[in-house]
Amino acid sequence: WKDRKRPIFGLPLSFTKYILTEEKLIINIGFLAKTEEEIRLYRMTDFSVNQGLFQRLFRVGNIKISSSDNMQGEFTIRDIKKPYEVKEMLSDMVEKEREKKGIKSP
Length: 106
Hints:
By secondary structure, the protein is α+β, with helices and mostly antiparallel strands. Helices cover 23% and strands 41% of the residues.
């Protein structure tokens, strides 16, 4: 799964990219000065979806994620398409990664 932040009318007019691989979530931010953040899936613990009125109109939303990662802790994937579907996919992938690594859910 890949998507961009869609802050204006649901259009990808941002330099924030989200990339989900089998083991981690990567967040790339910026155009000239770039930042890349990486969160291992097995460290993610809780998920919630938020959608304001305008986000619902343009079919985008935010996914708030809690993790046991010291640097990230709690973070939000903002303004993405199909946030409920992405949350379910992410949750399933986290469970599979935890099983693979033999980590019990908290």
